Amino acid sequence: MSYSIERRLAVEAVERASRLCRRVQQELVSGSSLSKDDKSPVTVADFGAQAVVSHCLATALPDVPLVGEEDAAALRQPENEGLAAKVVSAVQESVPELEKAEILNLIDRGTFEGGASGRHWTLDPIDGTKGFLRLDQYAVALALIEDGELVMGALGCPNLLVDAAQPEGPRGCLFIAVKGEGSFMRPLDGGDEQPIHVTDIDRGADANLCESVEAGHSSQSDTARVAEMLGISSPPFRIDSQCKYAAVARGDASIYLRLPTRKDYEEKIWDHAGGSMVVSEAGGRISDVDGQPLDFSLGRTLRNNTGVVVTNGHVHDEVVAAVKKVLGRAG
User: Fold this and answer.
1) Shared domain check, 152 and 285
2) Is 306 found in the same domain as 216?
3) Known catalytic membership, residue 206
């Protein structure tokens, strides 16, 4: 089956949403009067990006629903009229013809519950909100799911270096992957797509590892124990958002661990779908901490999975064995 239409839509939607996020983020560096605790820019970007992506997808494929992180209920409250106006203004810079009611309805398209039958998109309009506020890494993450299986993923990473080996070089990357067709990257501002591949490292001790900046997202102490067990001596590469998936996919890192911080937490599908597709099509492997594939057929969460292990594939079994031992799940 050809996904040429869906691929084009995903690239367009993620690119436009990433540009919106970039514009909104400029409020944090333009000398505005935002207080240190003011999170309104990321809120505006979150809602705005979901509206822009929803518009792109619904215009071309109106019958394919969307599992999104946000809904517009808060924006409809009278006390949030000012916030809603900022969201509308941000969206209209991208799509001038949209009115407020249409924008709120587009955001609300993201309330679909997902599941094992049919096809639907899933979107995290801003993955890495704290990174966004720190002017660091965040991602617009989109994926297409058919009958519970990932078939396409796209990541917009507006602050990610185009070439990690050139720290002073240009930033902004777009990643796209279709099942069976490989993973590709191009600069967010345009240019030719280039195929990307995971590293060929085949020993855990030789791998470099990335994890979340925020300790609340993953147990950094358990990650340190896993690294020690594998013989990894270099410090972890800490980076926000699904940019970690991008880092593994293009070979900046060979391992990404998201280890549980509490037993009752259920990972959300939008936090992993887009990145998982990009890594798997680049030759990598993704599982939970027990080595089981992530199950995207159960609705809005990965409730049958615990934690996430992402590798270049070559070291996956070795890493999962170490994770299971550290977490006391061996056997």
Assistant:
1) no
2) yes
3) no
